[in-house]
Specification:
alpha/beta; 245 residues; binds manganese (II) ion; 11 strands; six-stranded mixed β-sheet; Purple Acid Phosphatase, chain A, domain 2
């Protein structure tokens, strides 16, 4: 039994090396992956299931093949691809998960999984934005616009976020320790798995006098990161991404 977790690949037509790396990763996963969890920001932008950049269709096909061959695929939204919908999920044979889910790992441990942006509560500005764009009416209104309109809004939002983030301290953009504890306490879990911060690590922390663990997945840039879990436990792994072939 093998379960894999990936997040923050930020696939886009501007990074064909990331698309190739993911295609290789999914190909390798075919032989022995029972469950694949996509924990958000797999795509750098998503403006609706009705528009997928042609350069990304090989990824869609590879995910579909993987699910058809028996790997269960689960998808959680990130702050970039929060508009991924049921249509896309069914196209790849994946199940869309709520933004916080509790799952069981092959070693029997329960884990709370999420993208992780909801833990960054010190970033007030971002949390306000998150509330806005996660609102069903806002999403419905956005998706009813024409493709050129949606592309333009997405471009503006990205530019604004880049500008704002440049002014923010690193601490503000990391998770808030209290929100991690609250999340684990209310889920009654000792293990949290998330992405988003691009700070891959395994943190041990104290929770109500009990040991808690927080595993942070890495983003894909020069290296690809994944968490691999089997009956013996979990390993956070990384490999270089080749830009040449
Ligand atoms: Mn993110």
């Amino acid at each position: 039994m093998r379960t894999l977790f990936i997040s923050d690949i930020h696939l886009s037509e501007t990074r064909p090396d990331l698309t190739r790396a993911l295609l290789n990763f999914l190909h390798d996963a075919r032989s022995d992956c029972d469950q694949l969890f996509l924990l958000g920001d797999i795509f750098d932008a998503w403006i609706g299931d009705d528009f997928i950049h042609p350069d990304l269709t090989p990824v869609i096909d590879a995910l579909k093949i993987l699910s058809e061959q028996g790997t269960e695929i689960f998808f959680q939204h990130g702050n970039r691809d929060f508009l991924v919908g049921k249509q896309f999920a069914s196209r790849i044979g994946a199940e869309l998960l709520p933004e916080e889910s509790i799952i069981q790992l092959p070693d029997g441990q329960s884990a709370l999984i999420m993208h992780g942006d909801q833990l960054c509560i010190d970033d007030n500005e971002y949390q306000q934005f998150r509330t806005l764009v996660r609102n069903a009416d806002w999403q419905k209104d956005f998706l009813s616009k024409t493709l050129p309109e949606r592309l333009e809004i997405a471009r503006q939002l990205r530019a604004a976020s880049k500008e704002k983030n440049a002014e923010k301290s690193q601490d503000i953009m990391d998770v808030n320790a209290g929100s991690v504890q609250d999340a684990l306490r209310s889920a009654e879990c000792q293990l949290l798995i998330h992405g988003h911060t691009h700070r891959p690590a395994i943190h041990q922390q104290q929770l109500n006098h009990q040991a808690g663990t927080r595993i942070v997945l890495g983003d894909w840039d020069k290296e690809l990161w994944y968490l691999s879990c089997n009956e013996a436990g979990c390993e956070l792994l990384h490999e270089p991404i080749s830009s040449t072939h």
